[in-house]
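(Structure overview)
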Amino acid sequence: MEFNLEKFFVEVFAPGKDEVVTIFFDQPRNENDDNLEWKKRRQMAEEWRNKLIDVSEKYSLKINPVVTYNATNNNNADLPKTCFIGNEETLFEEVIKNSTIIIAMCEYSATAPLYRYTLKYPKLRVASMPGVAKSMQETALSADHKKIAETCSALKPLFEKAIGIEVTFSTGHKCYYDISDNNTVHEDNGLLHPTDDEEIVRLSNLPTGEVCTCPNELPQSKTAGQIPAIINDELIVFEIEKNKIVDIIGDNETASSYKEKFMNEKALCNIAEVAIGCNDKAVVTGNVLEDEKAGFHWAYGLSDHLGGKVAVKDFSSSDKVEHVDIVYAKGNSIVCSKLDFVNNDGSKTTAIIDGELKI
C-alpha cells in the first residue's frame, strides 16, 4: 500500500487552523561529504513539502519553503546561527520561532538542539528525522500510531517502577543500567498534537515508538558491565563502571581508534540513554533511526536533552558533541538476549527475550 503522507501528518500532528509548517535539511559542506542516501533524503523533503502544499488549503496550513543549512557534521551539535531559504541567508532561530510544526530531515541529528527550542517556544512541535530513508515509508513510518502509543503506555510504568535494567547480550556479555534516581522516563509515541501542557514533550523522533530514560549519572551510579558492539565490522567491548566508559576492549583497529577517541573526550564516556523500541513495523536495516525503534538500545555522550547532566558545554568543543545510539534489535549482528527490569524489592519483569518484546 502506498504511503499516505496526509494520513501520517494528521495522525502525528492533528493540525489546527493556521499552523505554520517548515521542513528543513542539512547540506553537505563539500562534495566529498555527500552520499546517495543523503541526496535521496533531500529529494524526499522536497516531495513531502509539495504533497503538504496540495492539502494545505484543506487544513488551513501555511507551508514554508524548504529551509537548508550547512551540516554540523556531528550528531546533536548546536544548529548554526543562519540558514537558507533558497539563496537568501536568514537567522535560523527566526525561522524556528515563527513555525508551529517543524519536520527536520537531516543527515546529522538535530534532536537535542531542537528539543531545547521546544522548551523556549511553547507552540512549537518537532518531528526530528535524522537519517530518514524513503524506504521507511513502507515500514516504520506506516505503523499504527495508536498501537504504538498503547505499547509505550505499557512500557513506561516498568521504567518508572524499576531501579535497574539488566541486559544480557547474545555474545554473553552483561550490563546493569542503574535507573534508581527517578530521572524522567520519556514516552516517544509519535503523537505531537497541540497542547498547553508544559509537561508533555513536543518533540518526537520519527519513525517513532520507544520509551527511554537517562541512567543515574551520579558518582555512586551502579551502572556497570560490558557492552559489546560491532563497529566497522569489528567486535569491540565497552567496559563500564559507575555509568562511564572506562575502557574499550578489542584486538583490532576499531578498538584502538575508539579508545583514543573516548579517552580524549571524557563527555563521550557518559552512558546517556537506555531504551526500548516498540514499533512493530520497524525492521533492521542498518539505519539507526529505524533500528532503534525495533528493540533495545543505549547511547553514549550528550544527555541533557533527556534530563541528564552532560551538556554541550562539557565537551572540549562544539564539533566534538555527540549522542550516539547503539542498537540490539532482532536482526542485528548482536541481539539483546534478555532484558529484565529490576524492582526495589528484588523482583524482576522480563521485557525482551531473544530480541523480541514480550510486553
In short: Residues 5-132 form one domain.
